[in-house]
Predict the 3D structure of the following.
Amino acid sequence: MRLLEEKILKDGKCLPGEVLKVDNFLNHQIDPVFMDKLAKEFYRLYKKSGVTKILTIEASGIAVATLTALRFGVPVVFAKKSKSSNIGDGLYTAKVASYTHGVVNDIVVSKDFLCKGDKVLIIDDFLARGSALMGLIALVEQAGAETVGAGIVIEKAFQDGGKIIRDMGVRVESLARIASMDDNGTIAFCK
Amino acid sequence: MRLLEEKILKDGKCLPGEVLKVDNFLNHQIDPVFMDKLAKEFYRLYKKSGVTKILTIEASGIAVATLTALRFGVPVVFAKKSKSSNIGDGLYTAKVASYTHGVVNDIVVSKDFLCKGDKVLIIDDFLARGSALMGLIALVEQAGAETVGAGIVIEKAFQDGGKIIRDMGVRVESLARIASMDDNGTIAFCK
């Protein structure tokens, strides 16, 4: 999606360790008008998939997932990163490694909100090594629901998460796919 | 807002300790079409206030804040609950107690995203003792910006946060104000 690639080149910053900082429109400050254009594109890509639910993970996936869910007219569920004292015991759980933060989190979703028969579109802001996405797919499987696909804002295609998950047979649509980036700020996108 | 009061009576659950569980449309699963009606009401209430930025706190404030920001056509910034390794050093910080979870968190916002001259509308899902809202107001003050008001989805009016913050001279608009609730599931709203 050219509009997103231009936004990344204009506003993104490369930090050491192949970290792409896009916190002025996606991760910390959110540009809702721009995000809504991404949501429109996810809707275009998956409108024939019979989506009944959007699944994302707190916190930075929630904004774009909510706007996408509004376009589909279906609920959005966000997986939480640790067990909250008032979430109840009936939980699906998976482990997710965050390489940025150097921790492994349990992610949880209430059994009330993912059900057998649900056709789930997973939305997230980033795909790199794929740990979060694999965790979310595991939650959907535990519920006996179906992952119809994933909609990712930015994929670091030079890392292997996208390949692994596509090789599992999951449809993954990434709106920007980064082929390479370096500490000097040079970003190249996949053709 | 009668629509919201009806939704709370239909879908909310009272748990011991005056916890109101509304995780099927607000806190865990989000009903985006319904949330967008709340966003429309926040816009109606504050459209003449010259809002330049929406501020909320992760995670469950993000959905309704994003939809509200879309209506205003301004950015939304979400305060983060602890220092992330790639957020940078230039931060405004405040302390927020969570009585539900029994912890005190540092909340942070990058200095890049709250600026002198900003007219900030704070949006959050709940107001009870007011700790989160006071923390967010403190972040706005640190930036030299102005809090034009707060938009709250559900206020527990039987706790003192709303009164304290209104007494500080801050405009607080809550879409549902709960006068009392008990463990038997009886909820009464303020007239």
Q: What stands out?
A: Chain A has a mean pLDDT of 93.
